[in-house]
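Here is one chain, start to finish.
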Amino acid sequence: MTTGLVYDDLFLEHGEPWHVENRRRLEAVVARLQGSGLWERMELLDIQPADENQLLWLHDEDYLEELQFISQRGGGQFDADTIANWATWAAATTAAGSCLGAVQDMLEGGVDHALCLVRPPGHHARPSQAMGFCFLNNVALAAEFALRHSLQRVAILDYDVHHGNGIQEMFYQQHPHKKKIFWKYVVFLNDMSLSNPISLNPTYLN
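Its structure:
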């Protein structure tokens, strides 16, 4: 079994050092993988920015132009906690494109699975809005790529304390006639023991 790895130092350049979603989060993951010896066991995959046509599968053109403009002029604030800097456009498009490339490598049999260590994150990004630290919806675009390249079904497992609203919204809009089930698990963080109840809220979109 071969595991592909997507990583580049470009992903460290996005964001501000004082922000909760900063480069140290990714640096910690890299350090742990390198320290454990797992890093060397993975195959480093090529990185590449997503092209405009690929981004337009799920994102609106006006929003993409706004994001590129704000980033290239030095950065700006989209909401209270979603802030772009000079590197955000390059990092975000490369994060998205490299996730697409990883899917392609898997579909072609080059690797069996892949770990994409990218920033900025994406699951809150909406079609025309940056949100919750996210600018481009990497996972949604990767799933869309898979569906456009021979796969009939895709499962997205989103491990986070927040609901991946951007992913859900994009697939509801893009594939309104396909059956989708979104399961939202809410775990109370003050006690993570399995003996305590976990609320399970399925959302069925037919």
